[in-house]
Amino acid sequence: MSGKATKAANSVWYKARMRMAEKDSRFCSREITSMLVGIERTRIAQIELQNVIPHPDECISMAEQYKAPELLNYCCTRCCPIGMLDVEPVEGIDIDRITVKFLNATADIADIERAILRIASDGKVSVDEIPKMNEILAKLKELSRIKNEIAVYMRKLV
Fold first, then answer.
1. pLDDT for 87-128, tens place per residue?
2. DSSP letters along 38-102, please?
3. pTM of the model
4. Angle 101-157-74 (CA atoms, 0-180°, nearest 5)?
């Protein structure tokens, strides 16, 4: 079994591989992992050391092989310039906490609906309505984050 990679120890990529190695010892070695994920061994090392950003196909392969769907969200929210603008990062949490967050976030959906209807009733957003729209957007972002958390949770089940 290979030793612990201390320089990469804080890397999400390395941690995901090591979690998989606890279930399948082939992932202890970058050499064997390389064959399993289809990424060159030195490239895996560079990704784990955070010297390079994985390409989308590499991220997908690692997420699938490591059974770590959260890597997809991580890549989108922290590595992709477009994703950083539009995708909400997820927390690695359990379904009970996700449910509580969901119920809290949806408690005022009716208020949000009424506010959007009031704002949109004249067909435009006036300057004085912008703060309320920003408030609504913040609530919708939270719902998007929760949706992503549920999706990651469900992907882990399969």
1. 989 887 799 999 999 999 899 898 999 999 999 999 999 999
2. TS-HHHHHHHHTTSSPPPHHHHHHHHHHTT-THHHHHHHHHT-HHHHHH--------HHHHHHHH
3. 0.79
4. 65
